[in-house]
Design brief:
Layout: H1 3-17, H2 20-29, H3 37-56, H4 60-83
Helix pairs in contact: 1-4, 2-4, 3-4
């Protein structure tokens, strides 16, 4: 693995870990009032597009980061849609 890929994986881990507290809190409390539906929807779409891009260019760090982040932000979006 190259130094560039190691850097990418380090960034992937940090950007994924930062979403865990928000996801866990939202799952636990079901409180989504302070979250913007438009922003969460745009973020989910953007992360999904980054995931597709990562697959197309065959970049493991991009695929890992955006695959994991997509699950988290899509879950938060689903809770926002369900609980308002």
């Amino acid at each position: 693995m190259s130094g560039t890929e190691l850097l990418g994986f380090a960034a992937a881990i940090l950007t994924t870990v930062c979403w865990l507290p928000q996801a866990f809190k939202t799952i636990r409390t079901k409180d989504t009032r302070s979250l913007s539906l438009v922003t969460q929807g745009a973020l989910t779409l953007g992360v999904g597009l980054w995931l597709v891009y990562g697959i197309l260019v065959d970049s493991p760090p991009i695929i890992f980061a955006n695959g994991a982040n997509f699950v988290l932000v899509a879950l938060i979006l689903a809770l926002k849609v369900r609980y308002g």
